[in-house]
Structure to design on (393 residues):
């Protein structure tokens, strides 16, 4: 009795103050204003929250599945990557890796993935490539891009369209192999003029750690020049050359082979990093989905409870009104 | 050494060392016996899209697929 009176009173007082559209949906159900709520609707509809919970649950399922897929792909690629590291190491021992070399025609090979949802690895390699361009650009120097993968293309098109020479995509339809990368490296060598090729990729360290790296491949002429100048390449002359080939022929063969080997390793490392990054990204997004789901469940239950309580109060107060 | 004699020829034919070595590798793969042969031939699959860019515009991409050359 008292409750009903209070409510009626409250309504009379509040009517002029509160705007005709009550903000709190809960309130509008308790005090149904004639012009707004439908006839017979007594409680907040939980339909929307339920739908949202269902969709979040589905998203969580999808991200979990993607994580599993990435994990299984990672295992295969990781084994290959670790084996491929042996390919470039002798080259670095022989020809060195001179990232600071100062030459006229720079070609930056940016390696990225074709698909997204893998954290920040693509933007990291794009950032590094841009920084490299800045370092290596000058009045009589030029810097060109060769892009592997859709994602880096999409980012680099925005500001350095003019400098893109080649674009290669859809690498990972079949599992990566040396033949494929060699054909690709061959295409790059035939289509660009270079003094130094700088390959930017994410080196796979562990599932959660990828180090953006640069490998440099010099053209045979530059190697010869550097060897004459001494430094780390000065020892090159002490190697004995077998057969009738000249040194420049040997160097040209070596550079080409070095490029394809370094590319092979870089592509694999990047693919490995991609899967690792996707795995951790999907892991955290399924965790986030779980959090959202928890919050939604809490809201849902609280609303439901509130509706039940209201109904109980109404019944009890109605009964006591009859008795009293 | 036969390789020495071959060097000028493949270079003169416009091949790079990569193409040359790939051809040699593919020949070796063809010589393998059966269980190993088909297994190694799967490692020869090539598939990717190349497009050359001229003046900030991509040209029509060409598809490089399956066996090289």
């Amino acid at each position: 009795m008292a409750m009903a009176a209070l409510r009626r009173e409250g309504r009379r007082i509040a009517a002029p103050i509160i705007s005709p559209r009550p903000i709190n949906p809960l309130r509008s159900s308790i005090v149904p204003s004639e012009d707004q709520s439908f006839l017979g609707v007594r409680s907040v509809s939980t339909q929307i929250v339920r739908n949202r919970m269902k969709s979040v649950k589905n998203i969580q399922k999808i991200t979990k599945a993607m994580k599993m897929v990435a994990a299984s792909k990672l295992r295969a690629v990781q084994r290959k990557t670790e084996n491929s590291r042996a390919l470039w190491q002798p080259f670095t021992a022989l020809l060195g890796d001179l990232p600071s070399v100062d030459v006229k025609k720079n070609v930056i090979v940016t390696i990225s993935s074709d698909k997204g949802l893998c954290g920040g690895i693509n933007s990291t390699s794009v950032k590094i490539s841009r920084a490299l361009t800045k370092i290596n650009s000058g009045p009589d120097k030029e810097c060109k891009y060769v892009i592997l993968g859709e994602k880096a293309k999409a980012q680099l098109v925005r500001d350095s369209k003019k400098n893109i020479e080649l674009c290669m995509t859809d690498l990972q339809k079949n599992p990566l192999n040396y033949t494929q990368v060699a054909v690709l490296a061959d295409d790059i060598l035939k289509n660009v003029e270079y003094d130094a090729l700088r390959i930017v990729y994410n080196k796979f360290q562990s599932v959660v750690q990828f180090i953006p790296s640069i490998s440099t491949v010099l053209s045979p002429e530059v190697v010869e020049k550097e060897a004459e100048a001494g430094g780390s390449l000065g020892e090159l002359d002490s190697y004995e050359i077998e057969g009738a080939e000249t040194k420049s022929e040997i160097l040209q063969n070596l550079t080409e082979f070095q490029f394809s080997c370094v590319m092979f390793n870089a592509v694999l490392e990047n693919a490995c990093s991609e899967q690792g990054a996707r795995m951790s990204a999907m892991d955290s997004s399924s965790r986030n989905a779980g959090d959202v789901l928890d919050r939604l469940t809490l809201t849902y239950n609280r609303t439901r409870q509130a509706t039940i309580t209201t109904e109980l109060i109404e019944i009890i107060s109605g009964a006591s009104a009859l008795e009293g | 050494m036969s390789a020495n004699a071959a060097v000028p020829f493949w270079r003169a034919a416009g091949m790079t060392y990569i193409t040359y070595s790939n051809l040699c590798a593919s020949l070796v793969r063809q010589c393998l016996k059966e269980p190993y042969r088909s297994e190694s031939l799967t490692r020869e699959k090539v598939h990717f899209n190349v497009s050359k860019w001229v003046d900030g515009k991509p040209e029509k991409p060409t598809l490089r697929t399956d066996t090289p050359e």
Observations:
- The interface with chain A takes residues 1, 3-4, 7, 11, 16-19, 21-22, 25-26, 43-53, 55-58, 61, 64, 68 of chain B (CB under 8 Å).
- The mean pLDDT of chain B is 81.
- DSSP finds three helices and three strands in chain B.
- The two ends of chain B are 26 Å apart (CA to CA).
